[in-house]
Amino acid sequence: MTETIAGIRVPDSAIARAATQLVRDTEDDLLYNHSRRVFFWGALTGERRGLDYDPELLYLGAMFHDMGLTQPYSSPDLRFEVDGANAARDFMKSYGVSEREIEDVWTAIALHTTPGIPEHMRPTIALVTAGVEMDVLGIAYHDFTHEQREHVCAHHPRESNFKENIIDHFADGIKHKPHTTFGNVKADVLALKDPTYRRMNFCSIILSSAWPR
Fold first, then answer.
1. C-alpha dihedral over 126, 131, 136, 137, to 10 degrees?
2. Distance CA 43, CA 65 (A)
3. First CA to last CA across the chain, in angstroms?
């Protein structure tokens, strides 16, 4: 049966159902519910902006966007965003999805913590980031109606301490590879949660490089 929440229909194709099951089996409740909310916020944003987006691709991007934080999909040396993007790519390839569609989902996940860029790209890419920014940062919170927010959160609740817990999830997923936070927002996570963390400095790297001048 097709599920509709806040006026948004959840894709009900074989690949969407399989993605839901895989993420449900891999992520804990906090990340799973967060990923589902990201889809709804992204889709509602697309509707509000009148964008011609593909709901299935948006759904796959939203559902896989934090898979790189989980142990089965976390590499020792890649940004967690890239790990999630790679997981989505492998999954989509197994269903014979076209390279162009895979590229859009891969890029959407890889860039979802890089503000200021995805919004200028194709709808799948822009809307995954919009959904993440709404759910984590509250960006455009008041562009959604009270009813929309209540309906989505009734089906996929935010814990009373979601803000602190999502930061903890970020930290747990990246603390074993702190070098991957260079130049991205996750450096702020480790600066808060890991007292041994020391930020890399872009200017210091330039000035200490092997170039003589």
1. 60
2. 15
3. 65
Q: Which tokens in the block code for residue 114? A: 């890089």
Q: For Cα atoms 176, 87, 178, give the angle at the middle one, nearest 5 degrees.
A: 15
What are the tokens at 58? 């948006």
Tokens of 36: 């589902």
Local structure of 8: helix, strand or coil: strand
Residues in the chain: 213
For residues 48 and 143, the answer to whether their CB atoms sit within 8 Å is yes
For residues 142 and 200, what is the distance between their CA atoms, to the nearest angstrom?
36
Written as tens digits, the pLDDT of the chain (213 aa) is 679 999 999 999 999 999 999 999 999 999 999 999 999 999 999 999 999 999 999 999 999 999 999 999 999 999 999 999 999 999 999 999 999 999 999 999 999 999 999 999 999 999 999 999 999 999 999 999 999 999 999 999 999 999 999 999 999 999 999 999 999 999 999 999 999 999 999 999 999 999 999
Q: Which residues in 39-66 are b (16+ Cβ under 10 Å) and which e?
A: bbbbbbbbeeeebebbbbbbbbbbbbbb
- How far is residue 120's CA from residue 131's CA, in Å, rounded to a whole number? 15
Q: How many angstroms separate the CA atoms of 203 and 183, rounded?
A: 12
CA distance 184 to 178: 11
